[in-house]
User: Which sequence fits this backbone?
């Protein structure tokens, strides 16, 4: 009774010093079946059908798991009604599932119906799924633990119906039909109740699931109800009928003592992380040291060389390292009434990458008062950490290796009446599901039942009290009084959104009609990435964190779980998980993708330190007098490029002449020149070839005059791109002989006679390139000037006067006409 006293003190501490207990998990959302807040409800057909034992498996091979539901109290109608024959329904998973499926019109609402054929056989008391025949398809496994045979009562049976069943069936499958049922296993002796627990898993490592079956009431060499568990290795040869009265299993595990009831629960999981399925078998009524009914869980590591018979009274699993045995804390706890395995903390075996499954154990009877407790034992090396195990160690106390103990909210809740584990929120860690089938959601709903979800991954407090206000990640409240919601729990991605859904059975609902509630797994609905904006230098690294949020506003880190990161191809760089090493400068969109959802961040990458310059164009040819524009580009070691032209300086050799206007160079002297661009102590060069352009001759000055005038002619308007005219030659009457007339920039000339003269100018540069131009010079003719002298100028007649011509003319006077009056 020591533990009961400790629990009383524990409750007192909570009441008086609420802060003493480390309540590390925030109150979670509540889903109330009374308010029909489930996503799908399946209702049984008739009273006392006890619908509500569930499993999932992809029976129709469409990639979405299907719901398998047993109704062990179902009465088969017909010519001869079969009471309690039992039934199993298969409802194909689909994104369209929702609302309520009332199996009272089962032909319409269930895709496959499987009916028992033995009165009081209770087919569907347990169900599971797995590919036990090795053909790649999920098979349906059905336990009917009360089946009787002629001469043997309640031996129990297990049936296997192979998958796939790809279409809905209009008529039921009867378990007597060997066209459908390819394997039937019968128990050995009266009241063995073979099939009260069934499981599948690859125990021997041949890549085919094996069938594991419990017969918890089987008698053995060590007493009545000691219980047995059987392993049938999967494969194509696992077929036909196996009667354990005459046939044997591949492995038989025999209970240690009378009334241990080994095999009441069982499951498989890879606890030691070697890639093989290990066996976890509950013997809930075993007494070990502390008193009767404390319970025990047996762990047997999977192997390809398991003994055909493992007698727990003779095989020291713990001391030999072949497994472990954990016994209950107090008498009447019933530890091991349910067991399950799942990787709750996400740890892996570093040698092979396999996860270490953790062990979940329920003790729902808990010291006979049915408060209930549950234990979490971390698998792998953590399982034995702190324990001293020798070759003489047969069993260890659960409390010595339990990492977390779950306590109920109230007395009589039956916490642990069911348990399972699955990754319900899609964060990569399996979550714990505990049913408390007699919890009271309210005064008016006594024994309606509650189910609690605790998300894996984050550390739990070593002692976790399910408080009336929550202290869970999700709480599901039963619908009606005495429904006992949570008496069974299961999981599976029934709506195909890649996240497991929570499945809760209430076999007592509505006077034993039974109901099943499905709540879509609280998967991520939105993503958030941090940092949302970031600026780094090329070559630097930055890391991003992605959190997911679900419809209950719960958030968790999915950075390293099924989340991918990307940047545009042009950004370059390298991702190592969520860490990005940058390369190309620019502003880039970082996209994180998780389970079809995306979120983005903006990453600005600036260039790294400059390590080189590039002057462009690197080589060019232009003519003298033309202009060319240069660009100066900086580079870093990541080939990022940026323009520093406006901050750079540009030079040419002095002898090249020409002129710079910042980046623009106007060429002058012909030749091949080195252009140098300089910025921040670095430089680059380019080659510029300047080709010669002939000069242009232009004549200005006096273009007309009179004969005999001295005219002025000017060549100063002549030009050369290189400013290198070295010779000006004039030909006043364009005879083609230039230098004979005059040279020089400016000249004069007198035309003696009137007329139109062609004046020519030829200019020559230092490359002997020439240009010639002409212009017309108009010379006007001047009229002669008449004049004479008379002598004498006076006298007496007759007087002889001599007249002397003094007329003048440039061209000479050719005729004179005198008139003496």
Assistant:
């Amino acid at each position: 009774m020591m533990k009961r006293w400790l629990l009383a003190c524990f409750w007192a501490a909570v009441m008086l010093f609420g802060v003493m207990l480390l309540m590390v998990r925030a109150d979670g959302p509540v889903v109330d079946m009374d308010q029909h807040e489930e996503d799908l409800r399946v209702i049984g057909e008739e009273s006392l059908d006890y619908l509500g034992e569930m499993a999932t498996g992809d029976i129709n091979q469409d990639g979405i798991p299907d719901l398998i539901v047993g109704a062990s109290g179902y009465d088969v109608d017909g010519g001869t009604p079969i009471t309690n024959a039992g039934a199993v329904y298969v409802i194909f998973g689909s994104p369209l599932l929702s609302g309520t499926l009332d199996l009272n019109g089962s032909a319409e609402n269930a895709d496959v119906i499987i009916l028992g054929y033995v009165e009081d056989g209770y087919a569907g008391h347990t169900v599971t799924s797995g590919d036990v025949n090795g053909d790649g398809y999920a098979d349906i496994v059905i336990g009917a633990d009360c089946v009787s045979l002629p001469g043997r009562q309640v031996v129990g049976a297990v049936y296997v119906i192979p998958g796939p069943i790809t279409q809905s069936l209009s008529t039921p499958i009867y378990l007597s039909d060997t066209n459908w049922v390819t394997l039937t296993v019968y128990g050995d002796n009266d009241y063995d109740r073979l099939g009260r627990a069934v499981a599948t898993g690859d125990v021997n490592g041949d890549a085919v699931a094996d069938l594991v079956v419990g017969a918890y009431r089987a008698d053995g060499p060590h007493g009545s109800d000691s219980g047995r568990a059987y392993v049938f290795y999967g494969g194509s040869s696992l077929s036909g009928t196996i009667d354990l009265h005459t046939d044997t299993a591949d492995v038989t595990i025999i209970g240690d003592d009378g009334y241990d009831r080994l095999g009441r629960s069982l499951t498989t999981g890879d606890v030691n992380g070697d890639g093989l399925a290990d066996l976890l078998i509950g013997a809930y009524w075993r007494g070990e040291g502390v008193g009767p009914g404390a319970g025990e869980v047996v762990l047997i590591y999977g192997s390809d060389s398991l003994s055909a018979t493992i007698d727990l009274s003779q095989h020291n699993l713990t001391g030999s390292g072949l497994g472990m045995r954990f016994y209950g804390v107090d008498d009447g706890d019933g530890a091991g009434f349910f067991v399950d395995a799942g990787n709750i903390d996400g740890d892996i075996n570093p040698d092979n990458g396999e996860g270490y499954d953790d062990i979940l154990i329920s003790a729902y009877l808990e010291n006979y008062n049915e408060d209930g407790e549950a234990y979490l034992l971390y698998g792998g090396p953590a399982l034995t950490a702190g324990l001293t195990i020798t070759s003489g160690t047969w069993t260890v106390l659960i409390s010595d290796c339990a990492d977390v103990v779950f306590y109920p909210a109230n007395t009589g809740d039956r916490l642990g009446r069911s348990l399972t584990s699955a990754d319900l929120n899609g964060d990569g860690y399996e979550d714990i599901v505990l049913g408390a089938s007699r919890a009271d959601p309210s005064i008016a709903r006594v024994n309606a039942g509650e189910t609690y979800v605790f998300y894996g991954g984050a550390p739990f407090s070593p002692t976790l009290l399910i408080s009336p206000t929550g202290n869970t990640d999700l709480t599901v409240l039963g619908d009606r009084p005495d429904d006992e919601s949570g008496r069974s729990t299961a999981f599976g991605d029934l709506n195909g959104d890649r996240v497991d859904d929570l499945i809760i059975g209430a076999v007592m609902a509505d006077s034993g009609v039974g109901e099943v509630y499905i709540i879509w797994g609280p998967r991520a609905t939105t993503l958030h990435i941090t940092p949302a904006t970031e600026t780094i230098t090329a070559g630097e690294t930055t890391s991003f964190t992605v959190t997911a949020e679900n419809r209950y506003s719960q958030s968790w880190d999915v950075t390293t779980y099924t989340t991918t990161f990307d940047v545009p191809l042009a950004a370059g760089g390298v991702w190592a998980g969520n860490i990005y090493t940058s390369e190309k400068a620019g502003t880039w969109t970082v996209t994180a993708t998780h389970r079809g959802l995306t979120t983005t961040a903006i990453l600005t990458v600036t260039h790294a330190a400059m390590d080189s310059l590039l002057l462009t164009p690197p080589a060019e040819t232009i003519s003298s007098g033309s202009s060319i524009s240069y660009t100066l580009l900086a580079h870093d070691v990541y080939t990022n490029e940026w323009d520093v032209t406006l901050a750079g300086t540009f030079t040419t050799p002095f002898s090249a002449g020409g002129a710079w206007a910042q980046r623009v160079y106007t060429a002058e002297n012909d030749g091949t020149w080195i252009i140098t661009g300089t910025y921040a102590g670095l430089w680059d060069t380019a080659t510029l070839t300047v080709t010669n352009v002939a000069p242009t001759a232009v004549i200005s000055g006096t273009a007309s005059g009179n004969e005999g005038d001295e005219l002025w002619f000017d060549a100063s308007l002549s030009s050369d791109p290189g400013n290198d005219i070295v010779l000006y030659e004039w030909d006043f009457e364009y005879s083609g002989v230039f230098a004979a007339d005059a040279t020089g920039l400016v000249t004069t000339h007198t035309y003696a006679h009137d007329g139109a003269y062609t004046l020519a100018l030829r200019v020559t540069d230092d490359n002997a390139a020439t240009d010639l131009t002409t212009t017309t010079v108009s010379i006007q003719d001047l009229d002669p000037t008449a004049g004479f002298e008379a002598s004498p100028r006076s006298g007496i007649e007759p007087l002889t006067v001599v007249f002397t011509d003094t007329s003048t003319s440039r061209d000479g006077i050719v005729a004179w006409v005198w008139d003496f009056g």
